[in-house]
Amino acid sequence: MAFDAILFGLFSLNFFINAANSVLAPFYPNEAIAKGVSKSLIGIVFSAHPICSFFFSLVLGKMMKLWGRKRILTISLILQAIGLILFGVVINIDSYSIFITISVIARGIQGIGLGAYGSIAYAYLPLLYPNSVEKKIAFMELITGLGLMLGPLLGGALYLLGGYQCPFYTLSGIFIVASPFILKKLPSDKLINEEKKMNPLHLSKFFLNRKVVMCFLLMMLPNCGISFLEPTLANHLTEFTSSDFLISLLFSVGTLTYALTIPLINLMDKNYNKKTALIFGTIVCSISYIFLGPYGGFGLQSELWIIIMGLCIMGVGAAFCLVPSIPEFINLGSEIYPDDKEGVGDMASGLFNSAYSAGILIGPLVGGALDEKIGFANAEALYSLVTLGILGSYIVLGDGYLGLVGFFMKKKTGVLLAEEKMDSGLKDTESPMDFESEKEKPNSKETIL
User: Fold this and answer.
1) Average pLDDT, integer, range 10-32
2) 132 secondary structure, DSSP code
3) CA nearest 102: which of 127, 119, 83, 120?
4) 177-191, 309-323, 396-410 — which is least confidently predicted?
5) For site-directed labelling of 11, which of 46, 123, 180, 382 has its Cα 20 to 30 A away?
6) What is the pTM of this model?
7) Helices 376-397/210-227 angle, 10° precision
């Protein structure tokens, strides 16, 4: 297999951008507390990231055809570098109010940069690799998880090596140095004719479509569930262990199983039903919340190994929810704008990143509030119930039932075809899926559009 410089560049930058957005977790809070900043204000600093990422992902999904993907990609990398440099500089500021203000601005800039890069990177994949888009999305998600998981470790190592400013200046330097190479390799943007400039895709048409809205909510759920744990799980785990190191490791369990599940999804037939995968992933996630409590109403004992099992199950469910999301958004968008495949792909990428950011924003707010009111185990059980309720709405209002019908019909059709195969004396190496795949395969190789 030939080395793909474009894919390597997109994946590498995706890793470092996600690492950069989680790099400050091990040491920034302590530095801020030393300057007299309260924990609630530190929470506001961190929340500026998903808020900005949520709104700008939606805007950029609509505008990238008009502005140009390479231009927005350049802006995203510049914003990441600026945000990191500001975080490096802020340590030298003694004024309490200025320290907080610049921290919020820097975190917001990082959120815009991440939203811009994520929208562009995921929008490039359907254009550059139309015949293997889901496999590329799966690997991009794998690298996103690795970046978020290894970012704090990378930040802690650079912090020990060169002090507070070292992680921020090192990563900003990577973006400044690497960006010209990837921008040179990417294909030039197509010129948009005046007719399409006068008739851009309307975001309102997507959010007035019930199927798009339900898919958006369903895709948001696993991110809510994961970030739900951020303000609550560490305190809950202190009932079982006082080791900060062990608690940090347990936070990575869900990410690890998520990363391990994605390659398994890649092995599935590329024509698998996206709605079926979304439904399966959501059900698995809802089950994991019961184990995370653990919820005594189902007879589960409050033991550490049960919580670890819940984290493992949650990672598996999240993978099945996130990987099919962009292809499903593309399918739904094509029903709204059947003649603008490129624009639909851009919008699908923006919707994906916006739903991702919304989940990360809402999860900690809801998790912290419910934990205070009804306790961790009951909060997880309630969220499991809410998840199943939204899943039910998706099945009815979002046409998710078609995924279930397709799944059972495919099983029935597979049995009938297998019987026909035996009757007709076909070779054992041939299967109904082989014929389906050959029918679906395009004649040409992957081309860069």
Assistant:
1) 82
2) S
3) 83
4) 396-410
5) 46
6) 0.69
7) 160
Q: Structure tokens of 48?
A: 């500026």
pLDDT digits (tens, 9 = 90+) for 203-227: 788 888 898 899 898 888 888 887 7
| Residue type, position 146, single letter | L
> Looking at this protein, which amino acid is placed at residue 346?
D
Q: How far apart are CA 358 and CA 49, in angstroms?
A: 11
AA letter at 20: A
pLDDT band at 245; cut points 50, 70, 90: low
Q: What angle do CA 79, 83, 86 make, to 5 degrees?
A: 140
Q: In the chain, what are the domains?
A: 1-185 (1.20.1250.20), 202-399 (1.20.1250.20)
Start-to-end CA distance of the chain, whole Å, equals 20
Place of tokens 């999860």: 363
Please name the residues in contact with 269: beta carbons below 8 A apart, sequence gap of 6 or more. 433, 437
Look-up of token digits 């969220």: 383
φ, ψ dihedrals at 200, nearest 5°: -75, 165
Q: With beta carbons less than 8 A apart as the criterion, state whether 179 and 74 touch.
A: yes
